[in-house]
Amino acid sequence: MGVLLDELRAAPECGSSCRSPGTSEGAAWRVLDAPGVQATLAQLSEGSGGSPRTIERLFCSETETSFGRWRQQVRLMHAVRLLCDGVSVTEAELEVGTLN
């Protein structure tokens, strides 16, 4: 684990941010605020005035990726930050919602 953390700290920056959406940002902000939330896109986009399909389409055009893949990248970046801060793998998994 120590070697992995040393390698992560020494690694050059390589796209450690996700392209932010514009119009469909309501669902995105909910994910950014709580990466571990297990809500579907339909649940996250409630009150946005658009159907989940419309939100997904807008999301793809604004970020050049699907909402699911974008959420996965957000979770991965959050988990790496936690691991670099010394949080255990299990705690990081619980925090980002990959361990139920």
Tell me about this structure:
This protein is mostly helical and 100 residues long. Helices cover 60% and strands 0% of the residues. It is built from six helices and no strands. α5 (67-84) runs antiparallel to α6 (89-96). The longest helix has 18 residues, at 67-84.
Radius of gyration: 15 Å
Helix content: 55-70%
Oligomer: single chain
- Percentage of β-strand residues: under 5%
Largest sheet: none
What order do the helices and strands follow?
HHHHHH
Note the total helix count: 6
pLDDT < 50 runs, ≥5 residues: none
Distance between the termini: 22 Å
Number of strands: 0
- Classify the secondary structure makeup into a structural class: mainly alpha
Shape field: elongated
Mean pLDDT: 76
Keywords:
single chain, 100 residues, mainly alpha, 6 helices
SSE map:
Layout lengths: L1 H9 L14 H9 L7 H4 L7 H12 L3 H18 L4 H8 L4
